[in-house]
Amino acid sequence: MESSRRIGLIVAGSLLAVALVLAGRWALGARQGRAPLPRSSVALVGQAGGVQRGLVVEVINATGREGLARQVTRLLREQGVDVVYFGSTDRRPDSTTVVVRRGQDPERGRLIARLMGTKRVTVEADSTRRVDLTILLGADYRFPADRLPL
After folding, report:
1. How far apart are CA 106 and CA 102, in angstroms?
2. What are the tens digits of pLDDT across the range 23-36?
């Protein structure tokens, strides 16, 4: 009885190990199958110290285009940006804006603004939001030319 139980545990452990390896290969393949953003965008992230580590960002869809905030969140996370929230709003601004929420220095948002294809950066301190930057996607937002929406 003891040996059959031991064999059962070995088989179960082996099956679990195989399942974990397959799941890991699937996840790795799914990430590798995605096309990266253009080199110019990658260069922006790496430029002058790159995106600050620990910079906390939220993405808000203000366009009415369903799923846009989720798609932009994926693009930003692939570039190493820490997006902790995405959602939508009823506001309908014409242009995409990066809003600095913590601190008074608009420079914190300029690198992300360039990454998003906008020049508009404003400072609206709001410590209750618990993010450093808010990316408000406006009607002018377009995906990078070589990247289709996910």
Report:
1. 10
2. 666 555 544 444 44
Which among 130, 150, 128, 23 has a CA at the least distance from the CA of 76?
A: 150
Q: Are 124 and 105 in contact (CB under 8 A)?
A: no
pLDDT tens per residue across span 63-105: 989 999 999 999 889 888 899 999 999 888 889 999 999 888 8
Q: What is the model's pLDDT at position 55?
A: 83
What token pair was written down for 36? Answer: 């990266």
- 92 vs 67, 69, 133, CA distance in Å? 15, 14, 19
Provide the edge-to-edge strand list for the sheet that holds 133-137.
Answer: 82-88, 56-61, 133-137, 97-100, 121-123
Predicted pLDDT of residue 32: 44
List CB contacts of 20: < 8 A, sequence separation 6 or more.
none
Tell me the Ramachandran region of residue 5: left when phi exceeds 0, alpha when psi lies from -120 to 50, beta otherwise. alpha
Secondary structure tally for the chain: helices H, strands E: 4, 5
